[in-house]
What we know:
Number of helices: 26
Keywords: Signal
Protein name: Antifreeze glycopeptide polyprotein
Distance between the termini: 65 Å
Organism: Litoreibacter ponti
Mean pLDDT: 87
Number of strands: 0
Strand content: under 5%
Order of helices and strands: HHHHHHHHHHHHHHHHHHHHHHHHHH
Helix content: 55-70%
Largest sheet: none
Low-confidence stretches: 1-27, 39-71
Amino acid sequence: MSTRRVALSSFLALSLAGPALSEEPLSAIDWLSDVVATPVVVAPPVIDGVKPADDVATSAVPEPVIQTTLGAPSRDAVGLRPVGVTGLPARFWGTTRSADLAAALMDLRPDLPPPLSDLVRMILLAELDPPLDTSAEAVLFQARVDMLLSLGALEQARALLERAGPTSPALFRRWFDVSLLVGETDDACRDMLAKPNLSPTYPARIFCMARAGAWERAALTLNTAKTLGVISEREDALIARFLDPELFEGEPPLPLPARITPLNFRMHEAIGEPLNPASLPNAFSFTQLSDTVGWKARISAAERLARSGAISPARLLAIYSERKPAASGGVWDRAAAVQGLEAALAGADTAAIAARLRDAVRAMRRAGLEPALASLFGEALIGLQLPGAAGQDATRLMLLSPVYEQAAQSGLPEEFDLHGAVATGDAQALGAALRDDQGATRAAIAAAFTTPGPADEDRALIEAGNLGLASLHAIKRLEDGADADPKALSDGLRTLLHLGFNDAARRLALFVLITGTRA
């Protein structure tokens, strides 16, 4: 047995007994790792008849020193896209309280329809004036980051955190976890151990010591943590195996953690007991995009992330195209179908395009990936004369794509008259659709595009300048997509249109019309 093995075995043997600590979620994002400790202020004892003096210390912990640069911008104002790019007014948040904006953001579903997901990400990444009650806690900024994490948009969340500077414990936790999930583990650990103002928890400290090669020091730290009773039995069992998996050869796998975090996810992966990211929040799927992961797992992860808009359709296509599928069914059928359609379009063979298009649409539609397929190939289908059902499929893809207006102007079949009116903003055609008896959903959409002004419920917010909260309320009404209540659908679209989000409103209306009536 090596010297390292002997030292580790001795320390680990000592650490396997002791009291446990409960593990509790510490954030609205309940999968965040507990990696940095915040000092706890100890309240003074209450003694009957004794009035506490103002000059008596209430804590053994020194007062936190807050360093700020005069004139430095609030974190709530930090963004990646300036107003010249987004088109949003700088005072988008108006006078709404940070807490109310944060609550409205976190009330949104993480699986928004693609047009809404794109709009939300644009708002989250925008450089805007901070709320009037902005503070060092940056409540809105943290909620923006958390919403990006919920959507699975880790790369954008990490860029936003790095722009703001993840120096507070709350923001560093998020930056550390995002770094673990996107495969920047060593950078995260190096930064943690180098920051004197951060107090890493024992599991995080031990993990990072081991990543840096300080195995014996990590084992000693584990033993100290166990002796002090500041680490749970579950954490102890996982960390012990992480430090020396060979010591536990032949033993059954550890039970699943009660709460899976990026830190214990990576530890389970390191000891050869990986956890399935498919049953975890979208963010964990990023761990499967690495070149070291099998192709099937990479495709599955890319599909999931593309479905939520966390990665671009082009990135999904790149992973689909890495090689030829060697099997059939599921992800293999989708990869083969997309490859076939791409090849047919490149060859400009109308008959081959029609055949391949049907295969691709059906395969991708079943997986909820029709919008991604539309983004990839919708523009290439404009102007093609495809027969029968293939022509219908092509029309739907063109209208689901970013070039929907160009597609509508190129001429659509008669049954797509309402779609074309929405895509081009043709008021006369929309009015005609409103007069026809075409069903509640179609009537709601036509009414939204022909009724001036926002929804009544949003009017007061907008008149007061609280455009951000009104936008989030509208998005909330629309988040069910084709299953939305017709009144909520009409009201949400009216408010988006009134606020100038014409592209998002049109794309969402087309998404509802197409996905709500597909065969």
